[in-house]
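Dear support,

We are seeing what looks like truncated structure output for some complexes. This example has three components. We would appreciate it if you could run it in full and send us the complete token output so we can diff it against ours.
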Amino acid sequence: MLIVIELLGIFFFAVAGSLMAARRGFDMLGSVFLGGVTGLGGGVVRDLILNESPATFGHPIYFLPPVLAALLVYGFTPAIQKLHRLVLVFDAAGLGLFCMTGTLKALQHDFNPVTAVLLGMITGVGGGLMRDVISNVTPDLFNPRDIYAIPAMIGGILTAVCWNFGLFNPLVGVGIAALTFATRLASLKFGWRIPLAAGHWHRPTPGSPPENGPQRHF
Amino acid sequence: MLIVIELLGIFFFAVAGSLMAARRGFDMLGSVFLGGVTGLGGGVVRDLILNESPATFGHPIYFLPPVLAALLVYGFTPAIQKLHRLVLVFDAAGLGLFCMTGTLKALQHDFNPVTAVLLGMITGVGGGLMRDVISNVTPDLFNPRDIYAIPAMIGGILTAVCWNFGLFNPLVGVGIAALTFATRLASLKFGWRIPLAAGHWHRPTPGSPPENGPQRHF
Amino acid sequence: MLIVIELLGIFFFAVAGSLMAARRGFDMLGSVFLGGVTGLGGGVVRDLILNESPATFGHPIYFLPPVLAALLVYGFTPAIQKLHRLVLVFDAAGLGLFCMTGTLKALQHDFNPVTAVLLGMITGVGGGLMRDVISNVTPDLFNPRDIYAIPAMIGGILTAVCWNFGLFNPLVGVGIAALTFATRLASLKFGWRIPLAAGHWHRPTPGSPPENGPQRHF
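Here is the complete output from our reference environment:
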């Protein structure tokens, strides 16, 4: 069952990656590639840090979701007006699933809980970060109007706590993923924020996001 | 003989990397570094995914081609008008060699053919992708007017097919590399393309390449 | 004692990363993340190339310096006018420490001296490079008015030479780090440079740094 969940998460992220490719004017292969990086990148980095050959490359089935995502985006781009919101929902679903599975895998490898939560967060946000870095845009992860990493952290911490108290089972895992998903959507809906990196000062530099008041993404 | 071919491929890619450094106004060390990343980056990522210490770091000789490439670019920049075309030819030669050797190495590690072809493509396009990402430009790989990844895929698939039918030998390998090289040059010459990521719609965003008709690179 | 030095180096780099986050308008989590990447990224890449699970993920204490650095930057940003110079000093201290420890670790893994020096340089400059690439700016490493990589190379070579002649001990290591630090500060103060990648020609392209004479960073 875990593999079905993983494939779903990869697909959700891959759709977000392919939509980025569509918006940037890349071609079909770029769409598959960027979808693959978004969907599989976080897990590959996690497995490299766990010092094992990435599971992704062990079976061809992991590369099916990016292909399907690219075809889906190719076929349904007329419905493009609804895309930005849809991407965020897909992305939140992938985030919920990956933080939980990433933390779980690190705990199964006997990593300490702090590091396991970090690896779960890397699994969740790594693919999207790689998508943005490769596409040459400022990563969404750093958008100060959007607390992307907080739901990821909550999902990871809940997984680690449940695991440490022997309460973790697949159903609990799905619940944690759903809660992470809901937290992410709520953060978008209500525009939750955390303080900026600079405490009492901020001078916008070219390339940094403008600061003209709150702006809802959702 | 394989090592001579590898060193040639590294050199070809490194020249492309050093020329990027020259165009961006970097200095000599940046030129060596960017050449090294372009020439060695794809192979390093491949070896990390194969979960072994990158062959590149096993012997100092692998670092000679980037140094030579940087010196060559330093010495012959007056002939700069011809560079853009020359870079593409060098790059195509490196691509042909690396897709074949990368796929081969993955097959020798008992990876399945699909994954092996992907690793071959990563070996071929990874260095150039890292060059562009590090130089902070939109990767050439995603240029919709240029099907960089298709020749790489053809080279990888031919290698996997020959290997599976027991037909692979060094001569066949060189032939596959030459065919990949020729396909790449032909794609440049005739402006071959594949469909965009967005099927029926495309709105250019800032930073995406303009869409005013076909444009020959070659 | 080595771990205290490592933690100090991580902290120095993390401050530079958090300051970048402050300048770009990222939030607190982005500040911790970017500080962590700057402080830990070079070592993680080194360990991946050495084909072992990154030491960073073995103990939670390695993640303390980025958190402290982010809090420091958050609390003391009113003193922002002095920051640019301060970042460079912190960064130079981290560079001095990491080139030495990185080269040392590679030598202890029986890598050849050339590769060990390269891995030391990667340890020293890798985190800053990742910081700039992730922040979507042209890496400082390639600034032709600033020879960042030369002090790193000197630190690595001195470490390898001392090691090969059996002269290396912790005190010598600290001395090498201090010398690297001093070389870096001197290169900033006196505006030392090396030749550009292009020998007799340079046409600035959009995005490349302007070329209107020497400019002191320090």
